[in-house]
Amino acid sequence: MTEISQFRPTTSDQFIERLNQEIDAGLTEQWQRHSGRLKRNLKVLADTSIRMGALLATKQITPAEADAILYQQEQLFNATLNHIRALPFIAAQSILNSIFKVAGWVVFNYSGVNLFPALVKP
Fold it and tell me: CB atoms < 10 A from the CB of 52, how many?
């Protein structure tokens, strides 16, 4: 893949191919950044459930205490789900940025004019 700072397509097919690569990279980065949160929260819930079950079985905590602990876990997951609901908007913004990053670099590479300085950083 040509470095974007050197990318000078001569056909729309070349432009679209590069755009697809940029979108794929952007979405992959977003997923990797945000999926870890869900995985970490699931691990905490699993560990807490196992530990709490053992403590309840040996009467080291009361059912009321266990309920309070699970309530805290529920609140954590509510926050996570609220974050997950925002992911389609984050993905849409990533796609939009990719589109105008490629377009901006093409214009810059042909003309030297930077129309999207937030996305095109020579």
Answer: 18
Single pTM value for the model: 0.66
The pair of structure tokens assigned to 92 is 């849409």
- Give, in order, the Cα–Cα distances in Å from 103 to each of 24, 58, 99, 122: 16, 64, 6, 14
Tokens 């974050």 belong to which residue? Answer: 83
Q: For 14-25, what is each residue's pLDDT tens digit?
A: 999 999 999 998
Closest by CA position to 14, among listed 115, 105, 113: 105
**Amino acid, res. 38:** L
C-alpha 45/C-alpha 42 separation (Å) is 5
What is the helix (H) or strand (E) element at residue 100, kind and residue range?
Answer: helix 63-111
Name the 3-class secondary structure at 108.
helix
